[in-house]
């Protein structure tokens, strides 16, 4: 396809990307929250936005169905980053990845005993690496959402999840027991597109870079 296709997810990424797009002179003509359209035109005839699931953004860009995309570091670590150029930390959708457990569970003591822990998470690869580096024995259970429920329902002793205010953990009587890493969203670019369409893509990348706070 001629022109530029940008893959974005609805919600916080779309909202926080609007000022960056504006800095590149790009204004989406519809709000994906109210429109059901999955392909959204912009004020520029050569730029369109495709609305995909947050975890599908790297895949669209990897295969060139989108030239650019914006994805959380959490999502990129699980995807692996194959075929993606990652030139910029956009410093949006900031949160952190952590291990959380029920307030009454002595996680540190369980780790010292060398206990085998059941940990539920959407982030299997990141969790595996984290616990391996710490020498903690875990059985990882893959979930697709609502990780906070797992310890309460007896599915797991702990979870690996994203936290920003901590409000959701608190509401479910969970506490953060280990910090894993800070998370923010990155610009991802299809490597082949960057070579073939550099004159179109580079100005957008430069405008984003200039607009990062
Ligand atoms: P879905 O809601 O479709 O299951 P998702 O939860 O991954 O997918 P979003 O909730 O839109 O999608 O999150 C998109 C990205 O925003 C995440 O990949 C992460 O990088 C970041 N994020 C997630 N939760 C928070 C949060 N509480 N505060 C700030 N950023 C967050
Ligand atoms: Mg979500």
Describe the structure using short key phrases:
5-stranded mixed sheet; D-Maltodextrin-Binding Protein, domain 2; 11 strands; 6-stranded mixed sheet; alpha/beta; binds magnesium ion; 2 domains; single chain
Overall number of structural domains: 2
Order of helices and strands: EHEEHEHEEHEHEHEHEEHH
CATH class of the largest domain: Alpha Beta
CATH fold type of the largest domain? D-Maltodextrin-Binding Protein, domain 2
Radius of gyration: 19 Å
The CATH homologous superfamily name of the largest domain equals Periplasmic binding protein-like II
Provide a count of the helices.
9
Oligomeric state:
single chain
What does this structure look like?
This protein has helices at 12-23, 57-62, 73-79, 107-113, 124-134, 149-153, 167-171, 191-196, 198-211, and strands at residues 4-8, 39-41, 47-51, 68-72, 84-89, 95-102, 117-121, 138-142, 158-163, 174-183, 185-190. It is of the alpha/beta class and 213 residues long. It has 2 domains: 4-93 and 184-212, D-Maltodextrin-Binding Protein, domain 2; 95-182, 3-Layer(aba) Sandwich (D-Maltodextrin-Binding Protein, domain 2). The strands form 2 sheets. The chain has a 6-stranded mixed beta sheet. Adenosine-5'-triphosphate binds at residues 9, 11-13, 53-55, 72, 74-75, 93-95, 145, 162, 164, 183, 185.
In short:
This protein is of the alpha/beta class. The chain contains 9 helices and 11 strands. Adenosine-5'-triphosphate binds next to helix 1 and helix 3.
């Amino acid at each position: 396809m001629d022109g530029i296709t940008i893959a974005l997810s609805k919600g916080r990424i779309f909202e926080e990307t609007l000022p960056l797009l504006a800095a590149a002179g790009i204004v989406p003509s519809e709000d994906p929250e109210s429109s059901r359209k999955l392909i959204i035109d912009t004020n520029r005839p050569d730029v369109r936005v495709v609305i995909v699931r947050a975890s599908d953004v790297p895949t669209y860009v990897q295969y060139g169905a989108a030239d650019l995309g914006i994805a959380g570091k959490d999502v990129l670590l699980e995807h692996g980053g194959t075929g993606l150029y990652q030139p910029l930390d956009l410093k949006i959708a900031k949160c952190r990845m952590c291990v959380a457990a029920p307030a009454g569970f002595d996680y540190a003591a369980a780790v010292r005993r060398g206990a085998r822990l059941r940990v539920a998470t959407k982030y299997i690869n990141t969790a595996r690496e984290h616990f391996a580096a710490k020498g903690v024995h875990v059985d990882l259970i893959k979930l697709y959402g609502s990780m906070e429920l797992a310890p309460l329902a007896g599915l797991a002793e702990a979870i690996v999840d994203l936290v920003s205010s901590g409000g959701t953990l608190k509401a479910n009587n969970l506490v953060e027991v280990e910090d894993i890493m800070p998370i923010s969203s990155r610009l991802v670019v299809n490597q082949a597109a960057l070579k073939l369409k550099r004159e179109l893509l580079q100005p957008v990348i430069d405008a984003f870079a200039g607009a990062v706070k």
